[in-house]
Design a protein that fits this description.
23 strands, alpha+beta, about 400 residues, 4-stranded antiparallel sheet
Length: about 400
């Protein structure tokens, strides 16, 4: 313990495998066979619950308390770093007091810090180091050839991690915490802006009942595009962002401004920014709008419109009718959108000049405010990862 504390207080640079980094106690993975969902059990953290550097604790899977007791090595404690091992490999979050006592699934790696490691912010430092382009590229390369991107615990434990001198590390951690606070605030701003836009939509529908009764099939007001599988080999294809249904479902904001994977796709299959994306979930359909060129993944649909006012109206119309849209899903447990059923689904379609365009004039500034908040988040994230990358480069130059 004293040696650990001494290394963490060192004023010299160091580089260590993650598993032997001063302040790290152990690296492991979660429960392989957690059993069925138990409504009154213990929350189980899954890979899908980790996104954007935080844990989504709204609807965790629950496991039997007896299973939890048999797997105490992965019983989570505040300060643990949890890492996605399957899919969005490397995405990570630090466990807070609200998740203390949960357990972890096999798709999640658990990095436990020593008491000294927690005091020195090693979990936060690692979380950001795992987000740097260099580390992300390294992890993707290690999983090349696999059907799904996977990160083994041994690969994670062997990852080289630069450890800055104490004074520099203290400054970096202070900046990281300030950035995290600002990102949390910006995320709330973006969410509130869209809640306000949804409220304005509900008001417009209520105040214009007579004209909003006018209806049209979705296929008559926009172009419905089916999703496609991700591919690394398409002749004449262009490299573009690829949105998996799971990304849309776990995306808590209306604007989808990034994806975890890319694909090669024919140019005509690329959907421009402003395209509406829909993906089914139990009991409803999730609707978001893209802010980047992308290709929708298989199982979901995209809706293109020629006019921005039409897109804004349809976005909020579909969001307000999530439960009704379940009828447009198909397949086992309704996990795929039916292009035919969705195209035939009728939406309210009032006169453009009297309702749709006035609503867009109110809603668009709110969308722009949300976009500005998310853009600031991207800049702040790049600021931190760039500084870490440059520091690592300087360390390599000294060795």
């Amino acid at each position: 313990m004293y040696e650990d504390e001494a290394e963490l207080r060192s004023q010299t640079w160091g580089i260590h495998p993650l598993g032997r980094l001063p302040g790290v106690d152990s690296v492991t993975y979660g429960i392989v066979t957690p059993g069925p969902h138990q409504p009154t059990g213990v929350p189980l953290l899954q890979a899908g619950d980790i996104a954007g550097g935080v844990v989504d604790q709204n609807t965790p899977r629950m496991i039997d308390a007896a299973v939890h007791r048999r797997h105490q090595r992965t019983a989570l404690v505040a300060g643990d770093l949890v890492v996605v091992l399957v899919g969005r490999i490397g995405d990570a979050a630090v466990i807070g007091a609200d998740q203390h006592g949960w357990n972890a699934a096999r798709s999640v790696g658990v990095v436990r810090c020593t008491e000294a490691g927690q005091q020195h912010g090693i979990g936060t430092l690692l979380k950001w180091w795992l987000r740097t382009p260099e580390v992300r590229a390294r992890h993707l390369e290690s999983s090349a050839g696999s059907e799904h991107s996977t990160l083994t615990v041994s690969t994670l434990a062997q990852l080289p991690v630069p450890l800055p001198p104490l004074d520099l590390r203290t400054r970096i951690l202070r900046t990281m915490r300030l950035v995290e606070q600002r990102i949390e605030l910006n995320t709330r701003i973006a969410a509130c802006a869209m809640e306000l836009a949804d409220a304005h939509f509900d008001r417009y529908v209520e105040e214009n009942k007579d004209v909003t009764r006018s209806a049209a099939a979705i296929a008559d007001v926009g172009e419905v595009v089916g999703g496609m599988r991700r591919s690394d080999a398409i002749e004449g294809g262009v490299l573009v962002a690829w949105a998996a249904p799971a990304e849309v479902l776990r995306h808590k904001l209306v604007h989808l401004d990034r994806t975890d994977q890319t694909t090669l796709a024919p140019p005509h299959a690329v959907c421009a920014p402003g395209t509406i994306l829909v993906a089914p979930r139990p009991g409803g359909v999730e609707t978001v709008v893209s802010r980047i060129p992308l290709v929708p993944g298989r199982g979901m649909l995209a809706l293109r419109t020629a006019r921005e006012a039409d897109s804004v109206w349809l976005l909020h119309e579909l969001r307000s009718r999530s439960k009704e849209l379940v009828s447009t899903a198909q397949g086992q447990q309704g996990r795929e959108m039916s292009r035919k059923a969705f195209s035939r689904f009728t939406v309210s379609w009032p006169d453009s000049s009297d309702v749709r365009e006035p609503f867009a004039r109110i809603a668009m500034p709110l969308h722009e405010r949300a976009d500005a908040a998310l853009e600031e988040n991207r800049v702040l994230e790049t600021l931190i990862t760039t500084e870490l990358t440059e520091m690592a480069g300087q360390l390599k130059g000294k060795r």
